[in-house]
Design a protein that fits this description.
By secondary structure, the protein is of the alpha/beta class. 28% of the residues lie in helices and 16% in strands. Strands 2-3-1-4-5-6 form a six-stranded mixed beta sheet, sandwiched between helices. The longest helix has 14 residues, at 76-89. The chain is globular and about 50 Å long. The N and C termini lie far apart (41 Å).
């Protein structure tokens, strides 16, 4: 009987809910340290002085800004360069970007992309600057959140960071793409495993604007052309009138 302190039959097999996961992970990870671990640089506040939203003098007012974020080493910088490369070489079919050195972004990087007549700026904010991400939410029209499919140890960090992003008031009415990067690596986690860990279905049900999941390889350009098409679709989508809910598309 459940009334005498015993666990109801089957309760121990029930999958954890989003609230269960957040309750277990968030306090520990937001304190930067788990028992027996070293402080995480991903959640350590970065100096405020190096990250202030600004529009450069040569930035075109016609170019929408999309925000590219994710924990360190997830592949944001390479993806930014790959989006530009694919947009410029889509007609030739040479979509795989040539090898070049990518350094970790500490501050802010901006990459102008012109795709099929649509102009936008990919604004990448480095993983070590996670504490400063909210400063840029109001500036962007959509968010690309990059997840490393191969980094099992950092998956909880990514999950908590995504939750914080989705629940910010400046992101609530903006489309968000969760990009599962490094599909070219055989030892990666599967999409199903990550979607289950992130409780994607539950998160989608909570939002009024699209939360979409895409698998990509920034290194091999796999899925990047389709991503650019998705971004263009969202940028050209008419604004939803105030008070009306936008139909949320699936992953």
């Amino acid at each position: 009987m459940a009334g005498n302190g015993e666990t109801p039959p089957g309760a121990e097999d029930a999958p954890p809910t989003l609230s269960d996961k957040e309750g277990l992970l968030a306090p520990a990870y937001k304190n930067d340290t788990l028992p027996g671990s070293t402080p995480s640089p991903l959640l350590t506040p970065a100096p405020r002085a190096i990250a202030k939203p600004s529009h450069t003098a040569n930035a075109s007012e016609a170019e929408s800004e999309i925000l590219l974020i994710g924990t360190s080493n997830s592949g944001k910088s390479l993806l930014s360069h790959t989006m530009k490369w694919v947009s410029e070489h889509k007609e030739s079919g040479l979509l795989e970007i040539p090898a070049f050195s990518v350094r970790t972004t500490i501050g802010l990087e901006r990459e102008s992309v012109h795709f099929n007549g649509t102009k936008f700026v990919a604004m990448e904010v480095g993983g070590p600057m996670q504490a400063n991400w909210p400063s840029y939410y109001s500036k962007c029209v959509l968010v690309l959140f990059v997840v490393d499919m191969c980094d099992k140890d950092n998956l909880a960090n990514s999950f908590v960071a995504l939750l914080d992003c989705l629940r910010h008031s400046d992101v609530a009415n903006k489309p968000v793409f969760v990009l599962l990067n490094k599909t070219d690596v055989q030892t990666r986690l599967s999409r199903a495993e990550i979607e289950d860990f992130f409780s994607i279905s539950e998160l989608q049900q909570q939002r009024k604007t699209p939360l979409k999941v895409r698998e990509i390889s920034a290194l091999r350009s796999t899925g990047v052309l389709e991503l650019l098409q998705d971004v263009q679709t969202e940028l050209l989508r008419p604004a939803t009138p105030s008070g009306q809910e936008e139909k949320v598309e699936g992953a």
